[in-house]
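Help! Submission page says 'invalid entity' but I think these are all valid:
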Amino acid sequence: MSAKVWLVGAGPGDPELLTLKAVRALREADVVLIDDLVNAAVLEHCPTAQIIAVGKRGGCRSTPQAFIHRLMLRYARQGKCVVRLKGGDPCIFGRGGEEAQWMRERGVEVELVNGITAGLAGATQCDIPLTLRGVARGVTLVTAHTQDDSQLNWQALAQGGTTLVIYMGVAKLGEIREQLLAGGMAADMPVAMIENASLPQQRECRSNLLAMEEDAVGFGLKSPAILVIGVVAAVAENQRIAAFGSSYRMCADTV
Ligand code: SAH
């Protein structure tokens, strides 16, 4: 019997943002290994599967990666249909690439299923177009969190003219600000910080590069959150103000 593991993206949280293919994989699953950023509501699609929580949140107690690998391998070799369910997309800061390689090296077939990554979902939920003709010709997804303390090329990021979407940045706002300012980004560059994107408890904090750390503290911004840095972060806001004038601001403040 050939062993197979599905590496599946569960999307950012809203169960309606799950793909049909992810639903099919879940329906077929015998065992589901689930990360802690996955909304458990999606498990309605696999009511009879064995569910194993293997959360790996930065700074928290977590299941060692090697153990997760071995667990997946064991179930796959027993001929079970194994689904590894990850928040967002499995290959965007999700170790999907590493897990796929590890499994394939051991003769296990791997099928990857996209999920909607939190950066895309967060921007859309806030009406931010990550690319926009004449404004942003690209988008760059980066993580502020590295295991080896290697540095990003902040100057290139600051001057690249693309919208920056930063994952795992909540604890590093001061450093991000300093690096981007030093790299030549304008101090008033719009920033949107989106917490719990696509979930009912979603919150968003609008700011700019210079003020973002202070504003985030005042707002009580918590992980999981993404940062969108770029001119587009203010586009929808400006369009609404243009369309509705000051009454829009009053509405927005009272919602
Ligand atoms: N594979 C995931 C990312 C995992 S890294 C994806 O594609 O979305 C974990 C980081 O993702 C968090 O620190 C946060 O920056 C971001 N994130 C995940 N879910 C989020 C959510 N619902 N709202 C905001 N940010 C989220």
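Support: the input was valid. A stray whitespace character was the problem, and the output above is from the cleaned input. The chain is about 35% helix and 20% strand.
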